[in-house]
Amino acid sequence: MSPFAHSSRRGQTLVEALVALSILTTGFIGIATLLTKSFQLNRTTMYDTQGTYLAAEGIELAKNLIDHDVYEYLSGNPRYSWGSCFPHGQGYYYPIDYQTVTCSPSSLKYQSSPPSAARSTLYFNPTTHLFSFDPSGAVATNFTRTIYVANNGNELDVQSTVAWTDGGISNSITLEDHFYNWQP
Fold it and tell me: Structural domain tally of the chain?
C-alpha cells in the first residue's frame, strides 16, 4: 500500500462512525416519539371507554329507580306508580349513584339546572371499585356525571352526560334512552 493511499483513509473510520451514530439516533428518536404517542392514545382510549361506561351506568341507575317504583306498586304500596320517582313536567337533574336505592326525598334531590362540577364529581372507592358522589374513603376522579330525566307521564327521557379532561382537553359523552309506561 502506498503512503498516499494510507493517509487518504485516515479519518474515514471516524466519519463512518458519525454517520452510523446519526442514523441510529434518528431511529431511536422516531421510536421514542412513536411510544409517546402510543401511550397518549392508550390513555385517551381508556378515558373514552371509562366515560362511556359511566354514562351507561347513569342510564341504568335511573332504570333501577323506575323498576323500584313498579315493584313497590305491585307489592301494594299506593304511594308509588310507574315513574313516580321523577316528577311530571319539566325535566330535572338528579344526583343518582349506586347508593341511591329509593325515591325518598332525603336520598333523591333534584334541581332544574345542571349541578356545578364540584357537586357532580365522581369519586372512585379503591376498596369497593365503585364510582359514587360520596367522597368518604374515595379518590376524586376527573369525571363528572349529570343525569337529566324528563317525565311526560307515559315516557321518561333519560340523558346521562359524563365529562372529563384529558391532557387539558375537555371531553364529554351523552347517552340517551327512553322508557315507556308499560303498566296496564
Answer: 1
